[in-house]
Amino acid sequence: MTRVLATLARLLLGGVWLWAGLAKVTDLDASVRAVRAYDLLPEAVVPIVGAALPLVEVLLALLLVAGIFVRPAAIASAVLMAAFVIGIASAWARGLRIDCGCFGSGGLLAADEEPQYGWELIRDGGLLLVALLLAWRPASRFALDGRLAGRAVEDERGRRAVGVGTE
Amino acid sequence: MGAAQRTVNMRKTIGRRGPSGATIAAILVLVLFAGAVGFGVWYAQRSAESAPAPAGTVVGGIVVGDPAARHTIDVYLDFLCPVCRAYEVQSGATLDELVAEGTAKIVYHPIAILDRLSSTQYSTRAAAAAGCAADAGVYPQFAKLLFENQPPEGGPGLPDSRLVELARQAGAPDSIEQCVADGTYRGWVENSTDAASKAGVNGTPTVLVDGQRIPLTDQALRAAVQ
């Protein structure tokens, strides 16, 4: 059961990263502006983060969907989500009027739009939780991890799932 | 299964693993992530192309009115932004009046933040065409026509041929067609959009009077230039 849940977690998290990464990768300048809109990072770092983040998101998506290095990818996802949660909460606390820029909007709001900080925090907080759970129990179905390691992956009950040790 | 068989199985497994699989994949993945970060660094350091700017502009803005006027009004707009159109309808006349009586000069900053909302980067194309119109000295007329003919978000926007038509209607010479077709001021739009972001403009329209952001009402505008 845990393995099924872990599989769903991988697909959910991977799907969100893929969506977020692809939405931003086609307009990196907008991604840079979105990072800048938070007014948290020094200007020297802003373009680096803005340009690299979409690529990192796509890479994480590929790892999670294919099931390669699930635990490290889940930990990296959790770290990123935690950073997003902090960023959004801080923008809210400082009374900024921005969009989170999560899916390529460039962090900008039209004058008639209201910020959606509450919903954005719930969403990213939920995804953070999913990433943490996946990092805790990364064993799942349809993952390439087992194949890569050239051995069976132990599930939570210590059973060998495939290959070695069939008695 | 006996112990011997198990050992053979393990040997087989170990033999198959060799120097390999996971290690190679791990290195590959690390290289990819390093590559992403490296790309970010490269992107950040890439020298900002010095793009040609239209005549009569300051950094990222088209100046309309007496440069020596008492007040400076900065208007940041995106030609695809419906609220920008609404602001033009609401306060366009007031702005014109302030310019006409010499109370204020207006620095228009046509920027492109809504390119994702059209399939043809209409925001960039329209703003670049506005640069062409500024060159020809007909920016205010052209901007009004662009708002009157504003395409909806989510569509293809107006084609370049239509932008040229509107520019001619605004009084631009025929040569404007070349300027629009060449995208002469696309780089300028990119730079002004970047400059706006650095100036803390997080949405359009943003209106500043003497550097102070004001609410988007006509009363606020009039009060700010008292």
From TrEMBL, chain A:
GO BP term, example: methylamine metabolic process
Protein localization: Membrane
Membrane topology classification: Multi-pass membrane protein
Major place of residence: membrane
Superkingdom: Bacteria
Transmembrane annotation, as ranges: 47-66, 73-93
Protein name (Swiss-Prot/TrEMBL): Methylamine utilisation protein MauE
Plastid found in the keyword field: no
From TrEMBL, chain B:
PANTHER family to which the protein is assigned, alphabetical: DISULFIDE BOND FORMATION PROTEIN D, GLUTATHIONE S-TRANSFERASE KAPPA
Superkingdom to which the source organism belongs: Bacteria
Pfam family, one: Thioredoxin_4
Family, per entry: Belongs to the thioredoxin family. DsbA subfamily.
Tagged with keyword Oxidoreductase: yes
Chain segments annotated as transmembrane: 21-44
UniProt keyword Metal-binding present: no
Gene3D superfamilies for the chain: Glutaredoxin (3.40.30.10)
Stated name of the protein: Thioredoxin
Listed GO MF terms: oxidoreductase activity
Keyword line: Disulfide bond, Membrane, Oxidoreductase, Redox-active center, Signal, Transmembrane, Transmembrane helix
Domain Thioredoxin-like fold: 59-225
